[in-house]
Design brief:
It is built from 7 helices and no strands. The chain is mainly alpha-helical.
Length: 255
């Protein structure tokens, strides 16, 4: 089925109204023309060839007047009936009762409502777990692991540029271990000699290159490493700000 958009529907409605007015005008014109011709014929065929005491002209005029007022009455009656029916329609939402509509309409509404309920039920996800997303009911619900991990790259890069203004520009496929090599001395090492940047680099490479979606455990490892890096960089930035303010105060005092 073809769906008619709003502007096209309004154009079709306007065109229909214009056609209706044109039809009424044409009908009125020909009806008036026929009335004039018949009246003139009645005058020409009368014995006196005049309007006076012309009974045929009176009958013809009366017949046209009766037809005109009868047609006008039917139009007004239809207009008033439609207006009254439209006023009875409730403007607020309410449930229709069975006795308020015809039986066929009631069963049609029931079938459509039942079909809509079945479609809505069948469209609901049957499996609560979707690969690469947080489980419903947990704090990770609605979180896509791949997107969340990749978003942390620019956040860490922005903090690194605050500490090291000449930090390299971020490239799309650069290894995190190589790109953030200048902040590596700032990060602590664990028992295996690995920093949070090593774990973060492994997770980002897995997210970028793996065909499967990352698991929740991999997401937690990557986010924990990203939070550790951001916390250390933020601490460094705070120390730089405090040191800068202290030097400014000392300079002001010496002056």
């Amino acid at each position: 089925m073809f769906k008619v958009s709003g502007p096209r529907l309004r154009e079709a409605s306007t065109l229909s109204g214009i056609c209706y007015v044109v039809l009424v005008l044409i009908t009125t014109f020909f009806a008036a023309l026929s009335c004039v011709l018949i009246l003139s014929q009645a005058v020409r065929t009368s014995p006196h060839r005049t309007w006076e005491r012309n009974f045929d002209a009176v009958i013809i005029g009366a017949a046209y007047l009766i037809v005109f007022f009868t047609s006008l009455g039917f139009c007004l009656n239809r207009r008033i009936a439609v207006h009254r029916r439209l006023r009875k329609i409730s403007k607020t939402y309410r449930t229709l009762r069975r006795n308020e509509v015809p039986e066929s309409v009631y069963w049609f509404i029931q079938q459509e409502y039942t079909r809509a309920c079945l479609v809505a039920y069948e469209s609901q996800p049957q499996n609560e777990y979707q690969e690469g997303w947080g489980r419903p009911g947990t704090k990770y619900a609605g979180v896509r692991f791949r997107t969340a991990l990749l978003d942390t790259i620019r956040e860490i890069d922005a903090l690194a540029h605050m500490i090291i203004p000449h930090h390299p520009i971020l490239r799309p496929h650069a290894r995190m271990l190589h790109h953030f090599r200048f902040i590596l001395p700032l990060l602590p090492r664990d028992e295996d000699g690995l920093t949070p940047l090593h774990y973060y680099d492994s997770t980002i490479q897995l997210v970028r290159l793996a065909s499967q979606e990352p698991t929740e455990a991999e997401y937690l490892v990557g986010m924990e490493a990203a939070m550790s890096i951001k916390r250390i960089l933020d601490d460094c930035r705070q120390e730089m700000l405090e040191s800068s303010s202290t030097e400014h105060e000392n300079t002001s005092t010496e002056l």
